[in-house]
TrEMBL record:
Organism: Meristemomyces frigidus
Organismal lineage: Eukaryota, Fungi, Dikarya, Ascomycota, Pezizomycotina
Superkingdom of the source species: Eukaryota
A Pfam family assignment: Melibiase_C
Record PANTHER family: ALPHA-GALACTOSIDASE MEL1 (PTHR11452:SF75), ALPHA-GALACTOSIDASE/ALPHA-N-ACETYLGALACTOSAMINIDASE (PTHR11452)
Protein name: alpha-galactosidase
One Gene Ontology term from the biological process aspect of the record: carbohydrate metabolic process
Length: 228
């Protein structure tokens, strides 16, 4: 519905009972589906691991993307190992961003780590079937939004933020890390300026007609940027 938002209820991150990978998957999906990022945990008891997840600027930038378009599921596979409850499946989700980039999520809900792969034709199927989308004929840079550098804050640095006793000391930690701070620069302004801290870490490229393949313990969040 135009002007409406998916509301998946409050986030479970930090409430306990889930693995780190499950929290990462949970937070990624909330952001990519444009559901409001409402924390359900007690922020007075926030730990470093939780802060390192919810403070990922690349994922929040997807949530705040000006296009305001939710990702769509483009693949479902239930022929994978199941858990003790008989549940097991993998998904691939894809969605456009306002600047022409594309977010791709490999969601592994199987009972084992898996290699997952897709093609540009599949990623851009909503823009044209059977590889007819113009985006499928481009070369794209692949950016990892979780595993490197500016994406996931190290636990020691997250703890330093939690231990800071004043706003000034928190700002000092952000400046020392060169970490994105939305209280000083808005996401809209940073996206317009192509601030690299909102785009994860380049891990490779995908050429037209080639497959992209990733090892996914639980979830992989990737961003595609068209090469200049």
């Amino acid at each position: 519905m135009p002007g409406g938002w998916s509301d998946l209820d409050m986030l479970e991150v930090g409430l306990g009972g889930m693995t780190d990978g499950e929290y990462v998957a949970h937070f990624s999906m909330w952001a990519a589906l444009k559901s409001p990022l409402l924390l359900g945990n007690d922020i007075r008891k926030l730990d470093a691991k939780t802060l390192s997840i919810i403070n990922n600027p690349a994922i929040i930038a997807i949530s705040q993307d000006p296009l305001r378009k939710a990702v769509q599921r483009i693949a479902l596979n239930t022929s994978v190992p199941v858990d003790s409850f008989g549940i097991g499946e993998t998904h691939i989700w894809s969605g456009a961003l306002a600047n022409g980039d594309q977010i791709v999520i490999f969601l592994n809900a199987a009972d084992t780590a898996l290699y997952m792969q897709t093609t540009l034709a599949e990623i851009f199927v909503m823009d044209g079937p059977h590889g007819s989308a113009p985006q499928a004929k481009q070369t794209w840079d692949v950016h990892d939004l979780w595993q490197h550098g500016h994406s996931r804050m190290k636990l020691g640095d997250a703890q330093a933020l939690l231990d800071a006793e004043s706003q000034e000391s928190r700002h000092a930690v952000f400046e020392r890390l060169d970490w994105f701070n939305a209280s000083t620069t808005s996401y809209a302004d940073a996206l317009a300026a192509n601030d690299e801290r909102l785009f994860g870490y380049k891990v490779g490229e995908v050429k037209a007609g080639r497959q992209s393949e990733f090892s996914c313990p639980t979830t992989c969040g990737e961003g595609l940027q068209a090469e200049e």
